[in-house]
Amino acid sequence: MTTDTASIQIKAAGTALAMLTAHSDLPIPHLQLGLIFTPTFTGLGWGVRISFSDDLSQFEQWRQALDIDPATITKDRSDDTDQCWWQAIGHFAGTPVELTGFYHATTAEESE
Question: How many structural domains compose the chain?
Fold first, then answer.
């Protein structure tokens, strides 16, 4: 049995630091290191998850700064609540990045 160590996250952690350093003038994101998957569940490896709550303008500022193609944005909604989200996948310095903006359908345009 092989046990992974924290060392597999070093590149993603370095990428998170590089992103914050390069874009220190942007709104504060919620950051998390994790395995990143495409909408079709293709694994991209360890990367950085960036998320925002109730402010899609912050999502958009970071999407533009990270040069993530707007065509990659997917929109979804909870079946049980008014919680919606936009999500986009890209790369920064060769590391996968998952950008998510959460909002309530009553505070922004509903996802389709």
Answer: 1
| The model's pTM | 0.85
Residue span of the structural domain in which 78 resides:
31-104
Q: Which of 43, 33, 30, 35 is nearest to 12 (CA)?
A: 33
CB of 19 closer than 8 Å to CB of 66? yes
Q: DSSP 3-state assignment of 68?
A: coil
Sheet holding 43-53, edge to edge: 30-37, 43-53, 95-104, 83-92, 74-77
For 11-50, how does the pLDDT look when each residue is reduced to its tens digit (9 = 90+)?
999 999 999 999 999 999 999 999 999 877 788 899 999 9
Residue 111 has pLDDT above 50, yes or no: no
